[in-house]
Amino acid sequence: MCGIIGYVGSKDAVPIIVNGLRKLEYRGYDSAGIAAFGKSGFFDVVKQKGRLAALEARLTDYPVEGFMGIGHTRWATHGEPSDVNSHPHLGNQGKIAVVHNGIIENYKQLKERLERKNVYFSSQTDSEVIAQLAEYYYNGDLMETVIKVANRLEGSYALGIMCVDAPDILIAIKKDNPLIIGISEHGQFIASDVPAVLEHTNKVYYLNDKEIAVLKKDSVQFFNIDKEMIKKPLETVTWSPDSAEKCGYPHFMLKEIMEQPKVLRDTINSAIGNGKNKNVMNKLDCSKFNKIVITACGSAYNSGVVAKYVFERLCRFPSIEVELASEFRYKDAVIDERTLVVLISQSGETADTIAAMRESKSKGAVTLSIVNVVGSTVSKESDFCLFTAAGPEIAVATTKAFSAQLALLYLLAIQFAVKLGKLTQESEQELLKEITALPGKADKILEQIDDIQKYASTCVGYKSIFFIGRNIDYATALEGSLKLKEISYIHSEAYAGGELKHGTISLIEEDTLVVAISNCERLYGKIMNNVEQVISRGAKVLLISGSAEKTPDERISMIRLPAVFELFAPSLSVIALQLFSYYVAANKGLDIDKPRNLAKSVTVE
Ligand code: G6P
Questions:
Q1: Residue 191: strand pairing partners
Q2: Is 573 in contact with 476 (CB distance < 8 Å)?
Q3: How far apart are the C-alpha atoms of 575 and 195, rounded to whole Å?
Q4: Residue 274, pLDDT above cutoff 80
């Protein structure tokens, strides 16, 4: 939530920062701002409520330039979206400028103390207190000031800080929010995420909590909070600059949906070829666990729900729980060193997932994460990490990372089952064959894109769309429903087919659509009973199925999936559901990559 970027170098900082903000917009987009240190010897600040495009328009009217600058794209937490609440924030004397991602939990106390000392606050944000406090403490030594400020702040932060007295120094520090340092031939960067700097460099440092980076035009130094210099490894990112571009697609979401066959292939290869993921899986001592808890948020949680069905069926493991990380972190979970906690997160920075991980570790549990972003907090702090090979995912609503998570979870379940002696070598080989066939089958669904688009264009008028499924198809229904409501703003809920008669059926009326998912052959008849029940109450039905023997009658529309082993069917159904949601939203003309009120990376509670 909120994206920050900073640059110091030999080029004009402003276009570089604006381009970087474009790549960070997925983190928040209710306002944006930039501060450049130019020839004037002061900060030139332009801040604008609205999308980044509004800031760009403003910059055309009020052009600013400089060789150093910081920029911010905001997802409001404290204070409504407005010009004045946008970042960067400056202290009263205009000496220090700050961009902040995170939440300062003790800002009220700090603000009150500063106000008693006649410091005037112009915004309603928690972030402004950082700039004011920095000016209050400033004694000519910017790094010392930053350390003093950091020692007073409670909460989470990633900060970019500039001072008019140090026109060639950009300082960064973080706690519980991500920050990377990029090194290029023409200058140095700070950024919330790698895509923001990819067009300039693939060489990055990952900042740890309470580490300070001091950036100059041609050098970067790192210090700990005691002002001692430290060394950090320079890492090379494997993502290509193209991977953070739309490449001709109207939206990142569509591009990312279409990338799924490749993402599945790369992720599967990383775990069954000679990739790092295979080594990690081999290292796991599965026999030591008597409980598995899978925990995550949003779509990552839904992939955990799928995994529970797969683990139960393949491993016959007695205790597998799936928990929302936001609930798990506060429930005083009964876990110990014999528990494996599986954390799933595209970003590796979701605040609740990080908290769940730390809580699990403090109770002695072993933590295994499934993460997309290398260098992220979850990937670094968990005991074991499997990386999804999804590449950068920019659209707020996840698609390809979800698919990659499923693939790794299937493979993990197979590994567990083998190690626990629940699978013969023959069955293992059969399952692996099924998994390696998934990318090809995903291609077959993408070939139906025109039909899905056509059908979706008839669905924009529905008041409510319900998703039903039984067993593992119910897990897919959860994701289908989430995807649709996230981007189309149509009310939607997912139900287990058997639950329909326990309440939901009262909501079925003429202008509702029911999307029924059916890949469990043995339950096909049951879900079709549900379909009949909703049709007789006036609903329209879309059936997504690989198990239907023939196309049902004309009352039912259908997306047919390739035949697939029941437990891996979510990987196919979900692609059809993603395309359906995408085209419903596209037909409504919505801003699909940046749905209202949402942010891709929820780094605050
Ligand atoms: C947000 C995103 C979702 C994502 C969830 C968890 O809500 O919009 O697409 O599933 O966060 O994020 P994570 O990075 O932990 O997977």
A1: 5, 180
A2: yes
A3: 25
A4: no
Q: Is 348 left (phi over 0), alpha (psi -120 to 50) or beta?
A: left
pLDDT the model gives residue 549: 67
Question: Do 35 and 97 contact (CB within 8 A), yes or no?
Answer: yes
- Residue 49: helix, strand or coil by DSSP? strand
Q: Give me the DSSP letters along 115-132.
A: HHTTPPP-SS-STHHHHH
**Nearest-angstrom CA–CA distance, 45 and 160:** 14
Ligand 1 binding pocket mutation candidate from 602, 603, 605 (most atoms within 8 A of CB): 602
pLDDT value of position 550: 67
Instruction: Measure the N-to-C terminal CA separation of the chain; round to a whole number of Å.
Output: 10
CA–CA separation, 137 and 115 (whole Å): 14
| Maximum mean pLDDT: which of 19-28, 415-424, 568-577 | 568-577
Predicted confidence at residue 268, as pLDDT, reads: 96
- What are the tens digits of pLDDT across the range 210-244? 999 999 999 999 999 999 999 999 999 988 888 88
Q: Verify whether ligand 1 is closer than 6 Å to residue 28 (CB atom).
A: no
Query: What pTM was estimated for this model as a whole?
Result: 0.89
What are φ and ψ of residue 158, in 5° steps? -125, 125
Mutate to test the pocket of ligand 1, among 75, 297, 372, 408 (most ligand atoms within 8 A of CB): 297
Which strands form 491-496's sheet, in the order they lie side by side? Answer: 491-496, 464-469, 512-518, 540-545, 556-560
Going by alpha carbons, the residue nearest to atom 15 of ligand 1 is 345
* ω into 88 cis (within 30 of 0): yes
Are 304 and 295 a contacting pair, CB within 8 Å? Answer: yes
* DSSP strands (E only) in 121-210: 155-163, 170-175, 180-183, 187-191, 203-206
- The two beta strands, 68-74 and 3-9, are antiparallel
Calpha distance 150→173 (Å, rounded): 8
Q: What is the distance in A from the centroid of ligand 1 to the CA of 300?
A: 6
Whether the pLDDT of residue 295 is over 80: the answer is yes
For residue 401, give the nearest of 347, 440, 442, 354 by alpha carbon: 347
Judge whether residue 57 has pLDDT over 80: yes
In the block, residue with structure tokens 């064959």: 433
DSSP letter for each residue of 492-561:
EEEEEGGGGGGTGGGG--TTEEEEEEE--GGGHHHHHHHHHHHHTTT-EEEEEES--SS---TTEEEEEP
Q: Which of 413-427, 447-461, 590-604 has the lowest mean pLDDT?
A: 590-604
Buried b (16+ CB within 10 A) or exposed e, 279-307: ebbeebebeebebbbbbbbbbbbbbbbbb
Q: Report the pLDDT averaged over residues 48-64.
A: 93
Q: Is 369 in the pocket of ligand 1 (CB under 6 A)?
A: no
The model's pLDDT over 343-390, given as tens digits with 9 standing for 90+, comes to 999 999 999 999 999 999 999 999 999 999 998 999 999 999 999 999
What ranges make up the beta strands (E) of 317-434?
320-324, 339-345, 366-371, 384-387
Annotation marks residue 600 as catalytic: yes
Q: Residue 524 and residue 547: Cα distance in Å, rounded?
A: 7
